[in-house]
Write a structure and sequence with these properties.
The chain is α+β, with helices and mostly antiparallel strands. The protein contains 3 helices and 10 strands, in the order ββββααβαβββββ. The protein has helices at residues 40-50, 72-86, 95-103; strands at residues 2-4, 7-11, 24-28, 31-33, 90-91, 158-164, 175-179, 195-199, 207-208, 212-214.
Length: 215
């Protein structure tokens, strides 16, 4: 886990895009967030301990690959299990917390934590130029971290947040918010302000998660 300081930051975008929140200021308390996406190695311990079925790796590999085939409820259950095991409070990040973590200290005009342009082999996406791009997940930590020391905030797998995409739905029908893009998405879906809607009860080969630790 990496501890991020409390801050009042701008999240969202000035661009009038369907999948972006309007630019706004929000204030966040200090929290810690996973340096990496939760891996199969970590998640398999949860399934073994709770008697749940192991998630499918689709032939991509397990161990240090990010867990996939996990819906929102399974990700939340993992956080609850880990909290019980450790006596600490783990949960999915809020939409704003995720964006703060992904942005780092990005300057005005940046689309990615490192700058305005994609740059080759910076992340794992369909046209990112890595050995895994458009084919499969990559082992966590395969690319340089952002300024906070966080890996794969762009690409590899979409990441669940705790938010509902639409606030006028109940939790059972909530369109969950996923962030960051994946190995199978185009560059424009990797930008740190983009938020996509995904059914909470649905899993996919390019959706995973990372956790927050409350202080």
């Amino acid at each position: 886990m990496v501890q991020l300081p409390a801050a009042c930051i701008e999240v969202g975008s000035l661009l009038m895009q369907h999948h972006a929140n309007p630019l706004r200021e929000t204030c966040l308390d200090s929290f810690s967030i996973g340096r990496y996406e939760v891996t199969f190695l970590e998640y398999d311990q949860f399934t073994e301990d709770t008697g749940r079925a192991k998630r499918h790796d689709i032939g991509f590999g397990r161990e240090d690959r990010p867990v996939i085939d996990v819906d929102w409820f399974e990700a939340a259950a993992y956080a609850e299990w880990l909290s019980d095991k450790t006596g600490k409070r783990y949960r999915l990040p809020t939409d704003a917390e995720w964006e703060y973590a992904a942005r780092g200290h990005a300057e005005i005009g940046y689309r990615f934590s490192w700058g305005r342009e994609l740059e080759v082999n910076r992340a794992n996406c369909r046209n990112c130029g890595s050995q895994w791009s458009g084919q499969m997940t990559s082992p966590v930590g395969s690319f340089d971290p952002n300024v906070f020391g966080l890996y794969d905030m762009h690409g590899n797998v979409w990441e669940w947040t705790s938010d509902c995409y639409r606030t006028d739905t109940n939790d059972n029908n909530c369109g969950g918010v996923v962030r960051g893009g994946s190995w199978d998405t185009q560059t424009d879906q990797l930008v740190f302000w983009l938020r996509a809607s995904y059914l909470r009860g649905k899993s996919a080969r390019d959706v995973g998660f990372r956790l927050v630790l409350e202080h």
